[in-house]
Amino acid sequence: MNILLLGGGGREHALAWKLAQSPRLKTLYAAPGNPGIAQHATLVDLDAKDHRAVVDFCTRHSIGLVVIGPEAPLVDGLADNLRATGTPVFGPSKKAAQLEGSKGFTKDLCKRAGIPTAAYERVTSKDGAIAALDDFALPVVIKADGLAAGKGVIIAETREEALDALDTMFSGAFGAAGEEVVLEEFMTGEEASFFALTDGSAILPFGSAQDHKRVGDGDTGPNTGGMGAYSPARVLTAELEQQVIDRIIRPTVETLAAEGTPYSGVLYAGLMLTDEGPKLIEYNARFGDPECQVLMMRFDGDLVELLLAVAEGKLAEQGPVELADRTALTVVMAANGYPGTPEAGGAITGIDAAQAGGARVFHAGTAEKDGAIIATGGRVLNVTATGQSVREAQETAYAAVDAIGFPTGFCRRDIGWREAAREESVA
Ligand code: AMP
Ligand code: GLY
Q: How far does the centroid of ligand 1 lie from the alpha carbon of residue 156, in Å?
């Protein structure tokens, strides 16, 4: 079967690597791809925003499955346009992708379905928001409703900070994404992510992970798209995971299906493990980046078969997802300046040497220039390893990081610290 993979980051490199291992694959095409993805796929010049061009490409190249990596094409309705022409797609419809595209949509769904989440109010004007502020204790969480590349969430410790945040949002700093705002109760606890595949009725758990959103060691500095991750997140015990499925994932899938907007794809639930049990922070309509990289390192099955079963509504015929018990951990190497403006064009050396010790280096923001690899994005490489423990995976991953020459880049040195500390306390 021919497959088209859309996206060009570390998540898509990890997906390409796994898709390429399937005996069912004939040709893997990818757009825009990157030099890492090019090791497994034929890169094609296609703009995911040009739905007609994508549909035409699929017809001309007998594409049997389109895998959409990032959220923007999903929220933009690309999956609907492909399905309308009979092409199986891994990824939700425009309406179902509102789970990621509109925080207000998700909060209202939680209310209708009785899903545990933070108390909230949706507001559409600054005056309305200021009035609503009185209903919340401090700190209060202020979110742009729409897609804001992970930057649309402000935790205001004081009323002044809250007013500033509302000022920023309603003055258009997030464009259309900030025309509507959600105010939320601040929840405390440890965060974890949980992934589940669904075709709109069957649900298959796809493991847990913990990301590191802050740019600096010890979780300091500004938020990023994610500086590193590991899987599984053992803090999400089997018992808690069952609660997440029963109280959060299943009611979401059932409610959306009953309302005529079935969700097909991967549900990525951002969770807060509170004293009252797991609560939903937010949904994403795609695999996480870099969480996907660690999930793929643990996945031992046939990814083509599984994603196709989701796309064709045949997930009930699949057995449980085969995830190895080993721990996978990834360290993001970013370009200096990230999450602000990253320094572009920095030289990268030593990727082969880094992989010689058993680690795997996924390309995130790279390009090839005159036969050499250079940095072209904020997050540039994902140096990934597995081990019997977080500590072991950390050692292999950081040895590989140290083998890479990237003078204009940096990384966190403490990915997995929470779990490593827990391992030490029980040892
Ligand atoms: P989101 O983009 O909704 O995942 O929010 C980004 C980050 O903000 C989350 O990973 C949390 O660390 C934090 N956050 C969001 N909502 C809340 C909340 N209601 N209470 C506490 N922290 C939150
Ligand atoms: N790593 C966070 C995300 O993919 O949204």
A: 12
Q: Which alpha helices (DSSP H) does 238-336 contain, by range?
A: 238-244, 250-258, 291-298, 303-311
Pocket of ligand 2 from Cβ distances under 6 Å: 211, 225-226, 284, 288-289, 291
Q: Which residues is 2 bridged to in the sheet?
A: 63
Gap between the Cα atoms of 69 and 333, Å rounded: 20
Model pLDDT for residues 335-379, shown as the tens digit of each residue: 999 999 999 999 999 999 999 999 999 999 999 999 999 999 999
- CA 187 to centroid of ligand 1, rounded, Å: 8
Mutation probe of ligand 1 site: the residue of 213, 268, 281 with most atoms within 8 A of C-beta: 281
Q: How far is CA 94 from the centre of its chain?
A: 17
Q: How far apart are CA 24 and CA 351, in angstroms?
A: 29
Ligand nearest to the CA of 281: 1
The stretches of 332-384 forming alpha helices (DSSP H) are: 351-356
* Pocket mutation for ligand 2, best pick of 211, 212, 267, 330 (most atoms within 8 Å of C-beta): 211
Distance 62 CA to ligand 2 centre (A): 32
Residue identified by tokens 């992510």 is 193
Looking up tokens 């995130």 gives 364
Q: How far is the centre of ligand 1, averaged over its atoms, from the C-alpha of 357 (Å)?
A: 36
Ligand 2: distance of its center to the CA of 386 in Å?
Answer: 20
Contact present, 202 and 315 (Cβ < 8 Å): yes
The three-class DSSP label of residue 181 is: strand
Among 26-40, 133-147, 286-300, 356-370, name the one with the lowest average pLDDT.
133-147
Which residues in 50-100 belong to E strands, given as ranges? 63-68, 89-90
65-113 tens-digit pLDDT: 999 999 999 999 999 999 999 999 999 999 999 999 999 999 999 999 9
CA distance 390 to 140: 34
Rounded CA separation 237/254 (Å): 24
Helices (H) and strands (E) in the chain, counts: 15, 23
